[in-house]
Design a protein that fits this description.
638 residues; alpha+beta; 5-stranded antiparallel β-sheet; 10% strand; disordered C terminus
């Protein structure tokens, strides 16, 4: 019984350690490992097919020679062929050999095997000839496929070691999901007070806000004294590439109707371009191509006296000329060089004006005059510094601005990274060329009577000029080209990620690999903003330039009750500040005074009185309760 129990225990132990019954989380192989494993499987299958065919050929060859000898013997004896019936010896061909023969003929394989069993003397030579033909054909095919397999292994070798890229990219994509972006802005005060509650993953930190701040840290003229997040943005970033890549997606599938395409184009031209002070010529092509007929157009009719930026320069609208059967609607515009007639598709955006007679904001497709109250110019009103732009937007506008700022930031970082790598590679190539020239000079000096070696000169020239075929994607522009090819379905995602790894040398590949997903979300966000059809009216109010944030907020809430997100940009700082201000929370234009203790700390952090504040207070109360309870226990023990 002891021996049986010990054997039972050993069986149980073996059963528990069997890998087939392991139900834990298995390590995921990345797509490069899977590609290499697939190549290995293909090579194994081809090798096995060739070896089976070769084994069957070696086994059938003596049988076929014997059958040929018997047939020739019958002919020499003068006997009619087929008079004697021959059969194969038992087990002369194994099951592997029979399967190899059947595989040669595909669907007719079973029929050939039956004929082989009935009349081997006639079928064996035919089968042997077929085996030899297939052996030569498959070996040639394997030689050709080896080149493809070798190229595939080389392309996937480096990526197979990058096991963290998939997980880092997934964390980065989670960090710019809509829920995460809303949690960032609504929980800004909590993240200011408790920085350890921010996502700790490096990829999430890389694509998250640049920082959370209780107030504007550099310029009191920003009038930002409440907790907010700051995202990097500046005019020096590659906004042109970000715009073209996003528009490529918008126009080729994300925008379903012509109205959506025209509205999205106006959002770029009338909001993003003046916000970041972008060149007008970037948007002229789309404005011209997406402009629709006057009756169905979504473009607002500007008022006389407004200053506008057009394809022909900056000017002032003198009058509106309604269209008729023979002519279309147009503006009469005064330019510095003269007066001209301009179509609506040539107008890029309105220029801000401090003239009281030209303060207009759109409503219902027309520009309406905005009357400002007298208190906006009073001495008690806190005015925003002239270097800042401020707009109060909806949730969709905030999501779009966060995604667009992140896109421009990642493209800027990629440009710096790839530019530095390209500069370093050029320096190494130049050093190698100089070393090669020095070696050739020494060889020439060694032979006093030797003439100039033309071959060495040609080799150096070919190295300097790039004797080999240059890669298709080089540097930052190569990354942009690869993105365009991927978005146009001319390149699959694995090839795009491999290109990113080649360009960056393995540095921050997960950020470059997350760009296609970020572009998809940015294109979707701009179409949602266009369909909401409210950002341009809110931006018109910010262009009035009265610089009173309290008045601007009340005007914005009057136009759209959901304009609860404060978005502020200063080009000198290089940051876009964003905060969440529901209607029940007051907008602070100066730091709170007269507070002490916890109240002063809360004022320094911007005590907005929102839901997150109450939640923090509850958590702090629970924590203090636990601490006081544990201290009471220690007193009793003493």
């Amino acid at each position: 019984s002891s021996s049986s129990s010990s054997s039972l225990l050993s069986k149980k132990k073996m059963w528990h350690t069997s890998p087939e019954d392991y139900d834990g989380v298995r390590a995921r192989r990345n797509m490069y490992e899977e590609a290499m494993i697939k190549i290995e499987d293909e090579r194994y299958e081809v090798d096995m097919a060739i070896e089976r065919n070769s084994s069957a050929m070696k086994q059938v060859e003596p049988l076929a020679e014997e059958a040929t000898a018997l047939r020739e013997q019958e002919e020499r004896d003068g006997q009619p062929i087929g008079r004697l019936r021959y059969r194969l010896r038992p087990r002369s061909l194994s099951s592997n050999h029979i399967c190899a023969v059947a595989r040669l003929y595909g669907e007719s394989g079973d029929e050939v095997v039956r004929h082989l069993a009935r009349n081997p003397i006639s079928v064996l030579p035919i089968v042997l000839r077929r085996l030899r033909e297939k052996d030569a054909e498959w070996r040639r095919a394997r030689a050709d496929m080896c080149k493809v397999w070798r190229a595939g292994n080389i392309a996937n070798f480096a990526g197979s070691f990058d096991v963290l890229c998939y997980f880092y990219r997934r964390e980065a994509e989670r960090a710019f999901a809509t829920e995460a972006l809303l949690e960032d802005v609504k929980g800004a005060r909590r993240f200011v007070k408790h920085p350890d509650r921010r996502p700790s993953h490096p990829a999430a930190r890389a694509v998250g806000p640049a920082r959370f701040a209780p107030r504007h840290l550099t310029n009191p003229g920003a009038l930002l004294f409440q907790s907010h997040l700051e995202a990097r943005a500046s005019n020096a970033m590659p906004h042109g590439d970000a715009y073209r890549l996003t528009t490529m997606l918008v126009m080729n599938g994300v925008a379903k109707t012509n109205a959506d395409r025209e509205k999205a184009t106006r959002v770029w031209a009338e909001f993003v371009a003046p916000w970041f002070d972008l060149p007008a010529h970037w948007f002229l092509k789309e404005l011209r191509e997406r402009s629709r007929a006057d009756k169905s157009s979504c473009v607002v009719k500007y008022a006389p006296g407004q200053k506008i930026r057009t394809a022909f320069g900056d000017g002032t609208i003198l009058s509106l000329i309604e269209g008729g059967p023979s002519c279309a609607f147009r503006y009469k515009v005064h330019f510095p060089y003269g007066t001209s007639y301009v179509r609506p598709s040539a107008v890029v955006h309105v220029l801000p004006s401090s003239n009281k007679g030209t303060r207009y904001a759109r409503r219902g497709g027309f520009m309406e005059f905005v009357e400002l109250p007298e208190r906006s110019s009073g001495k008690d009103a806190k005015l925003l510094d002239k270097s800042f732009q401020l707009v109060f937007g909806t949730e969709k506008v905030y999501i779009f601005m966060r995604l667009y700022c992140l896109l421009a930031t990642l493209l800027s970082d990629a440009r710096d990274l790839l530019g530095a790598r390209e500069k370093k590679s050029r320096a190494l190539a130049a050093a190698a060329a100089r070393g090669k020239r020095g070696g050739v000079a020494k060889q020439r000096g060694a032979g006093a009577n030797a003439g100039p070696d033309r071959m060495d000169v040609d080799e150096i020239a070919s190295d300097n000029l790039g004797g080999e075929d240059k890669p298709k994607y080089v540097g930052y522009q190569g990354l942009v080209s690869a993105l365009k090819d991927h978005l146009a379905d001319r390149m699959d995602y694995k090839t795009y990620e491999t290109t990113c790894r080649t360009l960056s040398g393995g540095e921050k590949v997960y950020l470059l690999a997350a760009l296609p997903r970020l572009l998809d979300k940015t294109a979707d966000a701009v179409v949602k903003v266009a369909r909401e059809d409210g950002v341009l009216a809110l931006f018109d109010l910010s262009q009035l330039r009265h610089r009173d944030p309290v008045l601007l907020r009340s005007q914005s809430l009057g136009v759209n009750a959901d304009a609860v997100y404060r978005i502020q940009y200063g080009n000198r700082d290089g940051y876009v500040c964003m905060s969440y201000l529901p209607p029940e929370v007051d907008l602070l234009t100066s730091p709170r005074s007269g507070s002490s203790g916890a109240g002063a700390a809360a004022a320094a952090h911007g005590d907005e009185g929102g839901l997150t504040n109450a939640k923090d207070d509850v958590e702090m109360g629970q924590a203090s309760g636990r601490f006081s309870h544990s201290s009471a226990k220690r007193m009793k023990l003493k």
